[in-house]
Design a protein that fits this description.
Protein name: Cellobiose 2-epimerase
Largest sheet: 3 strands, antiparallel
Distance between the termini: 15 Å
Order of helices and strands: HEEHHEEEHHEEHHEEEEHHEEEHHEEH
GO biological process, one term: carbohydrate metabolic process
EC number: 5.1.3.11
Strand content: 5-15%
Helix content: 40-55%
CATH topology of the domain at 1-30 and 247-402: Glycosyltransferase
Pfam family, one: GlcNAc_2-epim
Oligomer: single chain
Catalytic activity: D-cellobiose = beta-D-glucosyl-(1->4)-D-mannopyranose
CATH class of the domain at 1-30 and 247-402: Mainly Alpha
Amino acid sequence: MDDKLINKLVNELETELRNDILPFWINNAVDTDNRGFYGLISSDLTIDKTHAKAAVLNARILWTYSKAYSRYKEGKYFFMAERAYNYIVDFFIDKVNSGVYWLLDYKGNVLNSKKQTYAIAFAIYGLSEFFLATGRKESLTKAIELYNALETHTWDCVNKGYYEAHTTDWQPLADMSLSPADMNVSKSMNTHLHIIEAYTNLYRVWKDARLKSTLEEIINITINHIIDPKKHSFNLFFDEKWNPVSEKISFGHDIEGSWLLCEAAEVLGNKELIKRVSEISVAMAQRVYNTGIDTKYGGLFYEQDKNVIETIKDWWPQAEAVVGFSNAYQLTGNDCFMIEAVNTWSFIKAHIIDKVHGEWVWGTSADGLNVTNNEKAGPWKCPYHNSRMCFEILQRFKKRKS
């Protein structure tokens, strides 16, 4: 692969990170009246100052700016990371029952007190990164407390894996669905993938034997129950006993999971697991390459349900495709993967980056011409996928620069 092409990608992504993504949230998202960050900003930068504040958005801001501070050691990034940390600790963490509240009102009062396993995983992810960036021991303590809460209250001792959600005091919940787009089921791929992500980051900074064993077990659960060995893709939703209850395929999650599984195995340092996961990762990336890429307009399709492909191009699968295909290239040396990473970045530049208002649009139609959602920042629209794309490519390839 031509180093010039990779170096161009590295340079452009660092520019995008430093000049667009990171400044956008600093300049637009800080809630100066009620602490923390605004809960909703529309595509034209209209701020809804009374919108609810979501745990996922705040945890992802914490991760993003902790990572930025680790890399660049600039005060403006520390300001954002510390602001997110303080808000999560002061308002989102349940000081009585542990865990993280799902949703607060704009003043920090609890609106939805359910304990969504997914959100708690992201809090662990962000708190671990803040400790990595600052060395502040209380952030690691908080992350470990949340890890213990998940292990105590959400683990299925009979069938293994993690239940999706509970009430505020960890009782069964009738509706466990993560969002209106998700099925109400006992277990999901999405939650388990992000537990792997969170526990991997926690293990970087806390070499605990139980955590290591837990992380290895979740990876094996993913291999044995979540990945379809014939399709080389994730099943998405399951009943309590790990029977799949959906035939949908998520191209974005498949390519994201392909590199997150590799990262987890590498952080664990388990050579046998690294070998096994690497083979699975390449097969998953190849499957996405073969079936998920829009060869006409570029970019990655959203999902497939049986033989029907949803052709919209949301922002986050594009970001994960750049990382996942780059990872597959590093594992195989096959140029086609790196070329597709670069091609996806070209689609992002042309259609996803908002050249008028900054940051990225939610998504576009297949041809990239029509924006599909008016949300620029909100409960699910965060600076995590796109900033992490930049951090990952810089970390993987910047040393190649001449």
